[in-house]
């Protein structure tokens, strides 16, 4: 009999509300070029983008704090979070600049699958923050990366069959998710920088006066011209690592979560007992 799935962080009402709030703000922040009508004043304030990024970072920290305070992220889960975030941050520089080879993504997919969406969102955000500090990638794009990676890892925790699905079927599902999510992550991050290209590439840059279909065509051309090869490399790397190393990593993560017994409170014996 398959044991029930263990969740290192149980999402409560406040945590869910905070995640929904940040998700809504994130969608608006990423997608405003397609949400705002051409005659609006939104595009006239593109120079205020750093303030929006700073606001997103504050909201992300608030989500993490709400998840920790309500869901009871105990010392065992904190230790697991630290180990996985440090491992993911160390994996990110491997292959950096080489055809999108980023093994960090496969580890986050499997971690989110085993430890659940709440832990996954925190892990994705913290890992991206730690990797930015490690690689010197701190900048106005970092809050967007943290939010997108939090979504990426949380999505793996929301996949069906967490308690029962095992073996090849689970690996195939995780590989498909990793492939699609790798492209989604790249597309979302393209949205973060595309509106601020200015006149660097007039045929594919954002035009605040154009209609949504015209800007959508420009954005698709921008993705094809700038990131398609990188996103494909990331997706293929995630699939290959999931299918080859996935069984061993999943077993290790599940064994660690069972031994950690996250849902069992930590107690300390009194001196002399």
Order of helices and strands: HHHHHHHHH
Oligomeric assembly: single chain
Poorly predicted regions are none
Mean pLDDT: 78
Structural class: mainly alpha
* Rounded Rg: 20 Å
Characterize the biggest β-sheet.
none
Strand residue percentage: under 5%
Instruction: Please count the helical segments.
Output: 9
Total number of beta strands = 0
Form type: globular
The percent range for helix content is: 55-70%
N-to-C span:
38 Å
SSE order and pairing:
Layout: H1 13-35, H2 49-71, H3 75-91, H4 104-115, H5 117-135, H6 142-157, H7 167-193, H8 212-226, H9 228-260
Description:
- This protein has nine helices and no strands.
- With 273 residues, the chain is an all-alpha fold.
- The radius of gyration is 20 Å and the shape is globular.
- The mean pLDDT is 78.
List keywords for this structure.
273 residues; mainly alpha; 9 helices
Care to give the gist of this entry?
With 273 residues, this protein is an all-alpha fold.
């Amino acid at each position: 009999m398959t044991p029930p799935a263990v969740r290192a962080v149980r999402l409560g009402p406040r945590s869910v509300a905070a995640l929904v709030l940040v998700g809504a703000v994130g969608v608006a922040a990423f997608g405003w070029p397609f949400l705002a009508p051409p005659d609006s004043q939104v595009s006239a304030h593109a120079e205020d983008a750093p303030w929006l990024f700073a606001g997103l970072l504050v909201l992300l920290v608030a989500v993490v704090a709400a998840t920790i305070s309500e869901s009871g992220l105990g010392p065992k889960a904190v230790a697991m979070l630290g180990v996985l975030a440090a491992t993911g941050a160390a994996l990110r520089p491997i292959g950096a600049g080489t055809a999108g080879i980023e093994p960090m993504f496969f580890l986050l997919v499997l971690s989110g699958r085993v430890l659940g969406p709440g832990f996954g969102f925190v892990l994705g955000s913290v890992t991206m923050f730690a990797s930015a500090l490690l690689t010197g990638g701190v900048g106005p794009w970092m809050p967007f990366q943290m939010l997108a990676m939090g979504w990426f890892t949380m999505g793996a925790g929301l996949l069906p069959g967490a308690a029962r699905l095992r073996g090849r079927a689970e690996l195939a599902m995780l590989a498909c998710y990793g492939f699609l999510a790798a492209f989604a992550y790249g597309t979302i991050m393209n949205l973060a920088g595309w509106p601020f290209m200015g006149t660097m590439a007039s045929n594919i840059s954002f035009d605040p006066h154009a209609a949504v279909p015209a800007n959508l065509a420009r954005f698709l051309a921008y993705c094809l011209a700038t990131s398609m090869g990188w996103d494909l490399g990331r997706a293929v790397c995630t699939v290959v690592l999931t299918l080859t190393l996935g069984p061993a990593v999943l077993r290790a993560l599940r064994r660690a979560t069972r031994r950690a017994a996250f849902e069992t409170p930590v107690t300390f014996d009194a001196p002399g007992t």
